[in-house]
Amino acid sequence: MEPTLAPDEPKWIRLPDFDTLSPVEMGRTEKPSAGTYRAGREWFGLRFSGFLEVPTDGLYTFYCNSDDGSRLYIGNRLVVDNDAGHPAWEAGAHVRLKAGLHPFTLTYFNGVRNKALKVSVEGPDLVKQEIPASWFFVRDSKEEEDEAVGSKPVDACETQAAHNE
After folding, report:
1. Range of the domain at 10
2. How many domains does the chain have?
3. pLDDT tens by residue, 25-62
4. CATH number assigned to the domain comprising residue 128
5. In angstroms, how far is the first alpha carbon of the chain from the final one?
6. Entry pTM
7. In what order do the strands lie in the sheet with 116-123?
8. Contact of 131 with 52, CB cutoff 8 Å
9. In whole angstroms, what separates CA 36 from the centre of its chain?
């Protein structure tokens, strides 16, 4: 998981720039979840990355329900922006995708008290549901970067965590 801020930094009220932070933990998880990080912790951020395997060409709607902020990127495109400190709230957006693997990044932060993160999808012949763990893939090694992407299913997606105390 990922980044740490200096103790004199203010508490996050928006998603941090994870690229400017140093990981405090890194690992893999079956699918994105706020529960990925230690129970009871406040003021932390998570960044999940890997690949989504979309089953068919078509128009998909992705949703992020989070307490506090979250953002979902597919490729380099910001698809869902649900940033800021707020109670559990769902935001969604449409994107047209081809069948196959698509790089994704999901960022999330939690302030105080409750934490929640659920990422859902609906699309061609697919009712709205939490994205199945079987859709998530990562590369197992650097050498695979030159090979066809996503040839191996994994425990799911890589996570990085940061905390701000």
Report:
1. 3-163
2. 1
3. 777 778 887 776 665 677 778 888 889 999 999 999 99
4. 2.60.120.380
5. 16
6. 0.77
7. 89-97, 58-67, 116-123, 126-130
8. yes
9. 11
